[in-house]
Amino acid sequence: MTTTLAPFGSWASPIGADLIAGETIGLDQPRLDRDTIYWIEKRPTENGRQVVVMRSPSQQISDVIAPPFSARSRVHEYGGGVYTVNDGELYFVNDSDQGIYRTRPGETPTCIYSEPGLRFADLCLDVQRNRLICVCEDHGTEGEPANTLVAIGLKDRRVLTLHSGYDFYASPALSPDGTQLAWLAWRHPDMPWDSTDLLLAQLSANGTAESAQTIAGGGNESVFQPRWSPDGRLYFVA
Could you tell me the pTM of the whole model? Predict the structure, then answer.
C-alpha cells in the first residue's frame, strides 16, 4: 500500500458532485387519472431528462415518454406545469422545441402545436371545447417576453387569447362544469411569493373569458394552487 501526503483540503476524493447528483432522481407534479397515477421523474443519468412516468391499476410502473422527449417548460425560465392527462391521453411540453405534444402509453408523441419563440406551461384540458388552456410566453417580441393566457384548439390549432395585461400568468383551473376559469397573475416588481392576484372569469358559449374579476390576493398577499372540487367550489392557498 502506497501512502501519499498532501496539504489539508487538496487530496483527491472519489466522492464528487456527479456521483452524488447522479444517484438522486427528482419527483414532481403528481397527477391522478382515474385509477392511474402519473408523475415527473428528473433523471441526472439521462442528462437531466424529465420523464412522465405512470403507475397502472395493476401496480406496473412504466415510462410514458421515451428519449429524446423530455417534459419540461421554460416559461418564466424556471418552468411550470408541463403536462396534463385525461382518460389515458397525455399532453406535455417538450423541452427541445417548447412545443405541445400528445401521446398515449406505448405511442410515439405527435406535435399538436409549436411556434418558434413561443413557450407554454400549466396545461389545462377543456374537454367540452376540445382545447387546451395554458400560459403562453412570447419571446418573439422586443424587450421582455409577453405573457398571456390562451386556449389552443386541438382540431383547428387556433390560438385564442383569453386574458392579457399582466406581466405573468400561472395555474389556470377550469370548473367541473366548464363555465368558469380561475387563474393567477402578477406584475413587476413582485415575485409570485410576494403578491399575486387570483382572477375568476365566466366562459362564454364560444369559449372567451368574460367579466374577469380579482377575487383574492393583491397587496402583500400571495395566492397559489387554485383548485376546483367536484361540487364546483374553488379552493386556494393564501
Answer: 0.88
